[in-house]
Batch of 2 targets.
Target 1
Amino acid sequence: MQASQVQPPPEVEARETLRDASERLLAGLGALDLDDLRGSRAQVDRARSILRDAITRLNGSFEQLAHDTDQQRKQVGALISDMSGELAGNDEENSINVQWFVSQTSTLLGSFADLVTHFSKQSVGIAYKIDDMTDQMKAIFRLIEQVDAIAEDTNILAINAALEAVRAGDKGKGFGVVASEVRVLSRKTKVLNDSIVEHMKDAERSILSVRDAVGLMASHDMTMALSAKADVDTMMEKLDGMQQNVEFTLGQMEMFTSRVEESAAEAIRSLQFEDLVTQVLQNVDERFARVESAFLSIRAAAEDDGVSADARLRGVRAAIDEYETACHEAKQPAVEQTTMDEGEVTFF
Amino acid sequence: MSIECVRREASPPEVEIRVSGRFDFSMHRTFRDVWQKARGVDTCIIDMRETTYIDSSALGMLLLLREDYQRVVIRNCPSTVMKVFSIAKFETLFDFA
């Protein structure tokens, strides 16, 4: 604006200025750059896809975790029932239970001790019967000795009779024959007696050897059974302790497994935040889309295509109005979303 | 090893048999002679304070003795001997004092 030139009337000058400004504004609007906006939309889209991928993987991991811990809990449960020695159940033959085995051994040892004791009682009883028998035999030996003495006396009597017979001369001849027969009889008796004694002594020796054999049968050292029983008792105690320990540990394991399961379930529930975030991102994208569409309409209206600046400005105005209406409509059913665990947040 | 026997004319009368040393089959004869001579009383006391060892034949002898008395008390039992009585479950058959 040079002061030296002819000054146009102020209204014309103002109109000129306004037209210049309008043209500049329209040119600016026509050249609107949408790269940033489109870049932002692409970023939002990318965020959505990253989130979706991550959530899918996390879900998979937690579900696997829940599945694995469930398996683990089942196995621990099976182990606990095995350890508890639930043998009364169905597959007794297949179950290997150390405690059952040890208690069977203990029972067996008890029966063994009972058997040995009972057997010893019987054997000692037999030994006493044999003792009675040998006492009887001793009595018989004494009787045989008496028979022996009688035979000896008979012999002496016969000798005396023979002497008397000789002294009687011819008249005693017959008597002498009888006396000598009596001597023969007494000698035969002696021989018979000796033979009886011999046989009796054989029998006595046999009976005594039977008694010794019965004595051996009755005599069992109980120390072996004692030490075996002590071993079994110790083993039982140790097993008890071990079992309690294992049961406690397994119980703990079961508890921890349950906790892991709960945590995994909680984590899976928590992953539902994906829906919320996706909705938010969706909303952001919709807004971007509206802005982009408005920018495109404004740019199209502002483009110099031979239409008057006035008409183009009206076109721009209409595009802005259209955008505002669209925003207003979109706002009507305001997107309300509850957060994961806090109060309400309204996205606008 | 030896066996001593005392008969006490208390009321009721009782007989006490004291077994010393090893109580095994070698004692079976003497042991029975002693308990049978003392028969006729209800209570028999076996004192084992001097007993160093028992085997199964001693258990058999005691079981046979028990058939001749109403009540048999075993007393002053050393722990090694007591273990043998335990394994044979003698606590249920005899009185221990």
Note: Residues 2 and 341 of chain A are 70 Å apart (CA to CA).
Target 2
Amino acid sequence: MPFSTAARLAFLFALGAARLAADGPYLSVAAGETWQSNVNNAPPPDVTRSAWTTQASAEGAWIASLDFGTLLTSSLQASAEDCPTFHGLDAAGLDGSLTLRRKLGLGAFAPYVSVAAEGGATGYQDTERSEVAGDLAIGAGQRLTDALQVVASVHLGWQSARDEVFSGSYADAGLTLNWDVTETWRLKLLGGWRDGDVVTTYAALGEAGEWYPVDPGAYAYARPYKYISTFGAPYLAYRLRGRTVSGGGALAPALGAHTTLLLQFLRCKTQGYDLYFNNVFSASITHDF
Amino acid sequence: MTSRRVALALLILGAAGPAHAAAVRVMTRDPAGLPVADAVASLTLDGARPAAPPAAPAPVEIVQRDEEFEPYVTPVLVGTRVAFPNRDKVQHHVYSVSPAKRFEIPLYIGDSKEAIVFDHPGVVTLGCNIHDWMVAYVVVLSTPYFAKTGADGSALVAALPPGHYRLSVWHPRLKAAVEVDVAVPDQGEATQVVSVVLRPDRRIRRAPDAGAAGYR
């Protein structure tokens, strides 16, 4: 585990201390549906499985203004996911974050930079996937006009699951262009890159205790793997190093001053030992109290 | 401020009014004939030197409530003291970088410790450095004859000495103020209809930026 007990305790203490002189809590809730075309991350010619997932979350945030341009935000979020097709992916999680955001100047057109520490725990119905995870994030944003804003982020993350196949580390970067066509309608262009551990599944043949992948090349790939029954058929899940490039767009109409609907499409291409794709469609609604 | 394209309909009602005062009712309309609120109408006597403002114009408040400024547009006479009480539970950082008045009131809740004296004429744009969508305007005027239009697009400028005036109509979405010559009679109320062409209302979006679960 990359962070010592002392570091994790310091993070929790900082979360608590940040609330002492802060405004809040600011509460928000979100709910949505996601459909993935390749939820099992299988490369062709293995069978890809598609699935719907319902998500819901609630977050409380405390904000302290350190000076005219610096905000310290601590937050706690509880979330739950339900996958009716593959109940092994049902999950519930609790996450905390501490974010320092600095605006470099006065006014809406001044850029901002941020640094955040995030951590949490997620329990899956397939308990071998249950994990604790954390990441460090660096972000920046710049409003170009009243209607146009660019936001960038970089994460260095890790997850430690009950089974090593679902553990790992990664780095990712994302770029978002927000275009407010009107005060109500926002268009988002999304681009992302991720490099690190991925879980890729290969159809398995054999019987209990003697499983081997249909793809003989994967069998020769000396990485942690295990038999899983999550997707209703025998699969071997491999922990591999992979690079994912994603791109897409979203429509985010404002439903009043405190509520946003998000309709998003993301296409993800992962090159691990093999190449595979995943198309992710999602619809969600977020409300700030 | 320069004159712009104006569609002018002058109606002198000549209604009987108080014998010692004249007034001008300014009615602002957009090209579709709909009333325009939050327009500042000010009248300056032609050829007169700007009059010295009253020794102590009445203080004014611009409140922060629900993470917005209230009111959106505030006309004041030069020398007016403006307070910025914060009625939200969150701190605000009120500022302006407008040449007519640059100031900052950093991070407070409740009544601010300082009120700001607006001592130069001009338009002052207010913002909050924490909540980018918050915006308001203070229109600082040298003439004491001014009023702001309400939801009906109407503003009454009263207690006017008779004479020839320059009427100026300013609005945040006007590229430049509209100016018209107006003759104010000895008594009664004159009505002036001013048509204005407003730019689209573009403010920074306030609704939360949602992010759906991405690919994992």
Note: Chain A touches chain B through 52 residues (CB under 8 Å).
